[in-house]
Amino acid sequence: MQFSKSTDYALHALVHLGHSERRHNVGIKQLSGALGVSESYLSKIMSKLRQDGIVRAVPGVNGGYELARPAEQISFLDIIEVIEGRQRMFECSNSSSQQHLLLTEAEIAEQESPKREGCLIEKVMDGAEQHLRQYLKGHTIQTILDESRKRCTHDTNKK
Amino acid sequence: MQFSKSTDYALHALVHLGHSERRHNVGIKQLSGALGVSESYLSKIMSKLRQDGIVRAVPGVNGGYELARPAEQISFLDIIEVIEGRQRMFECSNSSSQQHLLLTEAEIAEQESPKREGCLIEKVMDGAEQHLRQYLKGHTIQTILDESRKRCTHDTNKK
DNA sequence: TTATTATGGACATAACGGATCTATAATTAA
DNA sequence: TTAATTATAGATCCGTTATGTCCATAATAA
Ligand code: SF4
Ligand code: SF4
């Protein structure tokens, strides 16, 4: 029940891209250097992010990556779903057990309607997941950028 | 990023114990039968639950398991923490990277106080986790039992 | 065209989850 | 006290996933 390191890297990479918004195309070399992760591995992650339309990539001289949409439209949820996948956090595997029948028979008896409601345990777990997703959807890369800029009282562009 | 099957089994087992509240001591054999999981494996899980004070176990003839506290004092969070462990969902591993320094320097500059606030990314992820925990803490085994009994219009004790 | 950069696939390895088996300890019924 | 019963703990196995590297290829801009 932990987020993978890849998710960690992806988040950091995207925040980095967010910071270097003006200068487009951050190469994998610079990214890798900034994050302290090998180029090989980070490439894989960036590739995934590209396939899902989070970043745009351009090969060739002075190529690299840039955010494919404004930072305020890239939520934590988006990123996590790309890396961790979109399966549900709770997948019950007892669906053929005696107990499953007991816990679901009640609702079948109650409402014969096609409105499948799922069992009680599932309902609680799915509820939890929805809460998590909702929160993650409400925080974007821009959130980080804003907070970061707010904290830094002396202007950010030293150069 | 999925809950393990063990968690699944633990939840089901405890709901089962909750149902058989009056008749104490449900043996591993009955439990295993009801859930459709091997005795060997389920034993391990029950053992863990006992070590953490969720259930009580008594060996010997007619022995078995029973809830160690009232069902309304056993939250989903309790159970999940026993099985999945208590580590945080997001453990950053870039703590020595350039970027880490950049993202944390601002706050160090701002408030020199010992009030360590953690970085922005961490803050969002931890926030998400707290939301999840809060929700899971608010739902107990009794929640399931109540709902189950409510749905079953014809009385539960057929025997 | 050429240097540069991303991409994808093939591997390698380690860690973890899921699961089984067995020997041992504890308890109760007889 | 004895014997049957039941939980406990450790060893071990296997398959999958996570993490990570390497290399050949494709795409692009200068
Ligand atoms: S969680 Fe609910 S639906 Fe899933 S196996 Fe258990 S009782 Fe059935
Ligand atoms: S998440 Fe924050 S604290 Fe952790 S490594 Fe990244 S910047 Fe540092």
Descriptive key words:
homodimer, 159 residues, mainly alpha, Arc Repressor Mutant, subunit A, two-stranded antiparallel sheet, 7 helices, disordered C terminus, binds iron/sulfur cluster, DNA-binding
Summarize the structure.
The first copy, chain A, has helices at residues 5-19, 28-35, 39-51, 76-84, 98-110, 120-137, 141-151; strands spanning 55-58, 64-67. Chain A is mainly alpha-helical and 159 residues long.
- Residue-averaged pLDDT of chain A: 88
- Cofactors, ions and other ligands in the entry: iron/sulfur cluster
Radius of gyration of chain A: 21 Å
Q: What is the quaternary state of this protein?
A: homodimer
Structural class of chain A: mainly alpha
Q: Termini distance of chain A?
A: 43 Å
Q: Tell me what portion of residues of chain A adopts beta-strand conformation.
A: 5-15%
Alpha plus pi helix count of chain A:
7
Poorly predicted segments of chain A: 153-159
- CATH 4th-level superfamily of chain A: Winged helix-like DNA-binding domain superfamily/Winged helix DNA-binding domain
What topology, given as strand order, has the largest sheet of chain A?
A: 1-2
**CATH third-level topology of chain A:** Arc Repressor Mutant, subunit A
Order of helices and strands of chain A: HHHEEHHHH
Shape label of chain A? elongated
| Biggest interface, residues from each chain | A-B, 56 and 55 residues
Q: How much helical structure, as a percent, in the residues of chain A? A: 40-55%
